[in-house]
């Protein structure tokens, strides 16, 4: 046996072997703990990935089966009908993808039904309004006619990516929902400030400014929020598709042929060019006479106004998407 250094404990050969075994066992235990920790981390990571995949699948399924969203009140027909004194007819709100309820006709009275399908970016719609809005206003205010506006979005691809047609139709639905008696003036103001097709159009703040700037408007704050949030965007999509697919209620028109589509007592107004109020006024009288030939009280009271020019209307493509139907 060799001498040990001073103060160093002398170990036997067996003791040194035992110490070495113990040291090796401790090293193996540490290695096992490290391996176990690594496996747990890997398993935990895989579990998180699996959870994320499951959540994504659930969201896709949920989004595919949930309702399309709300529709506006007072537009159960996909349009808003305005009567004497510019008072809107009230109707309940339907879900965006619910089947609309066609407005009842007034065949038993001396009131003329005027229905207008329009796109707020459509320049031809603007020309029709310029020629005939004052005349329609006189008929509606006096009770000689009702007018029902159906805002659609078939020119979505004509505003440099801003979806102006959709946003404008949504703004119209916001007004119909929160301040329906303001709708006629809103419609007038929208065409007075109509942007040119092919431009970015008005932003949401400008749309809200038009909607809340109408005299007597109610709930301006809610209208602004509705426009900013595009509360009725899904309804715009669905209503546009319904019009494009057809048929057009209370008429013999198979499907929306373009904008503007104007009906008087269910008869389609096919204007010559340019638009003139005289032509439209005569058409209203003729359509009223045809509809009410057996009713001696029929008395629509058209009045003349200035002429205005027109060009062919905006038309849907052969294969329209629900909310992005391009013009010709």
Automatic annotation (TrEMBL):
UniProt key word Transmembrane: yes
Keywords, sorted A to Z: Isomerase, Membrane, Transmembrane, Transmembrane helix
CDD domains: DsbA_family
Alphabetized InterPro entries for the sequence: Thioredoxin-like_fold, Thioredoxin-like_sf
Residue span of region Disordered: 1-32, 291-328
Bilayer-crossing regions: 40-61
Stretches assigned to the Thioredoxin-like fold domain: 112-281
Record's compositionally biased regions (Low complexity): 296-328
One function term, GO molecular function aspect: isomerase activity
One family name in Pfam for this protein: Thioredoxin_4
Keyword Magnesium in annotation: no
UniProt name for this protein: Protein-disulfide isomerase
Species name: Frigoribacterium faeni
